[in-house]
Automatic annotation (TrEMBL), chain A:
<dbReference type="InterPro" id="IPR016024">
    <property type="entry name" value="ARM-type_fold"/>
</dbReference>
<feature type="transmembrane region" description="Helical">
    <location>
        <begin position="12"/>
        <end position="38"/>
    </location>
</feature>
<keyword id="KW-1133">Transmembrane helix</keyword>
<keyword id="KW-0472">Membrane</keyword>
<dbReference type="InterPro" id="IPR011989">
    <property type="entry name" value="ARM-like"/>
</dbReference>
<protein>
    <recommendedName>
        <fullName>HEAT repeat-containing protein</fullName>
    </recommendedName>
</protein>
<keyword id="KW-0812">Transmembrane</keyword>
<dbReference type="Pfam" id="PF13646">
    <property type="entry name" value="HEAT_2"/>
</dbReference>
From TrEMBL, chain B:
<keyword id="KW-0597">Phosphoprotein</keyword>
<dbReference type="GO" id="GO:0005829">
    <property type="term" value="C:cytosol"/>
</dbReference>
<keyword id="KW-0238">DNA-binding</keyword>
<protein>
    <submittedName>
        <fullName>Response regulator receiver domain-containing protein</fullName>
    </submittedName>
</protein>
<feature type="domain" description="Response regulatory">
    <location>
        <begin position="2"/>
        <end position="117"/>
    </location>
</feature>
<dbReference type="GO" id="GO:0000976">
    <property type="term" value="F:transcription cis-regulatory region binding"/>
</dbReference>
<dbReference type="InterPro" id="IPR001789">
    <property type="entry name" value="Sig_transdc_resp-reg_receiver"/>
</dbReference>
<dbReference type="GO" id="GO:0000156">
    <property type="term" value="F:phosphorelay response regulator activity"/>
</dbReference>
<dbReference type="InterPro" id="IPR039420">
    <property type="entry name" value="WalR-like"/>
</dbReference>
Amino acid sequence: MNNFSDSFSGLSGLGIITIIFTISIIALGFYILTYLFIVNKRDSKLERWKFLADTLIRNAIFFEEDQSASSATSLLKVLEVNIFPIPERVKKILPDPHFRQLMMRELIAAKQNMTGAASVNLKNLFRQLELDQDALEMVRSNSWYLKASGIQYLGIMEMAEHKNLVMPFTNSKSGLVRVEAQNAILKFSGFDGLRFLDDASFPITEWQQIKILEELAQLPTEHFTGIEKWLKSSNDTVVIFALKLARNYFRFELYDHVISCLNHANPEVRYNAILAAKQLQTETTASDILKFYEFDTERNQLAIIRVLEDLRSENNLPFLLNVFLEESNQLKIAAAKAIVAIENGVEQLELQISSNQYPYNEIIRQVKTERK
Amino acid sequence: MKILIAEDDELMLRTLEFRLKKDGHTIFMARDGREALEQIDSKLPDLVITDIMMPYSSGMEIVGFLKQKYNNEIKVIILSGMGQENVILEAFRLGADDYITKPFSPNELSVRVNRFLAGMKNTA
C-alpha cells in the first residue's frame, strides 16, 4: 500500500491527469470497437436473415409454376399441411422470435404487393410457418398497440378463420384496435363484413369511412343488405356512412329512407341525405328536399340549391328566383348558377332583375361567364 | 430485350427480376432513382419498369428524363399503388407508356410486359 502511494506521490498532478486521460481514451476506444463489432455482427446477421426470408418468400411466390409435377400431385401437395420446402438453415432459426418478427414483416409487405396465385401462396406460407399463431398472441396481448398490429396482420394475410375472434374488436374502446378490426373484417368477409355497423357505438371517423369505401371498391359489387337498418342507427356516423353507401352503390330502393333522414337532428346527417337524394333522384326529389329548405343550415341550403341545379327543372325557377332576390350572397350565387342551368334560365333571370343593380349585375356577369 | 427495373423494395425487385429473367429478358436493377438514371445512360434498356416512390429521384422524374432525353426510344411502365389515379394521369402526361397497379400478380405482370414488348417489335 505504501509502495503504491509512494509511486503516485512521485508523480506531479499533470502526470496523474495524463494517466487518467490515457486510460479513459483506451477504455473509450475499446468500448467503441466492441460496440461496432456487436453492431456489425448484428447487421450482418440481419442481412443474412433478410436474404433467407426473401428467398423463401420468392420461392413461395413462384411455387406453383416451379412444380413440374402433374396437377393431381400438385393438388395433393396443396392439401398437405406443409406445402413449401423449408431449407434446413431456415428451420434452425425459425424458433428465434427476432427472425419470426422479420419473417412476418417481410411476408406482410410482400402480400400487400401481390395478387392471384402468388398471394395465395404467401398466405399458405404464413400459416405453414405458424406466424398466424404469433399474430394471435399479439391480439391476445394487453397492449392496444400489439393488439392492433396483430389484427392488422391477420387481416392483410386474410386469415378468415379468425373472424369470430376479431369481430368483437370492431367496437373496441381503442380507436386504433377498432379501425384495424373493421378493416380486417372487411378483408375476411367483403360486403358481409359491414355487419359490424349493426353494433357500432363509437364514431366511424371520416378517414375510416374513406378507407372502408376504398376497401369495398376493390371488391366485385354485390347486392348487400343492412343499409336500411344503418340509416336508422342511433350512431350518427353510421347513418352518415349508410347514406354514403346508398349514394355510392345507387341504391334507388332506399330513396324514401334517405329522404326521411332530412328530418334528422344532426345537420351533417341531413347534408349527406341531400347528397344521397341528388344521386338517387326521382321526379319528386325537388319537392321532397325543398320542404326542409327553410329550416336547414346555410351549408345544407346551398347543397339543396346544387341539387336543383342538377335537376334543371323549370318548375324550380320561382323558388330559385326568390332565393336570388332574398337570401345571402353565397346563396344568391348558387341560385343564379342553378337558374342559368335551366333552359331559358338566363333570360328569365334578366327579365326579373334589374341587371344594373349591385350585386345582381356582378353575379349575373359571373355565372354567364362561367357558363361559357 | 433489355429491361431495367427501378424499385426500392428489395423483395419486389428480386421477384420482378426472377419472373422476367424466366421470360428470357436481360434484367438490370436499380434500387433508387439516381441509380436508375445512371443505368439508363449506361445500359440503354429497351424498357424501364419503375416504381413511383423511390429515394433521390422519383418514378415521375425518371419518366420525364426518359421522354426528354430519349424521346420514344426507351419505353416506360410505371408501378403505382392502388387509388393513385392522379399519379397515373400525371405519369401519362409526362409520357409514361403503361402502368401496373400494386398489388399485382407476377404472372399478370409478365404477360403484360411481354405483350407490351411484342407491340413494340411490331411497330418498330
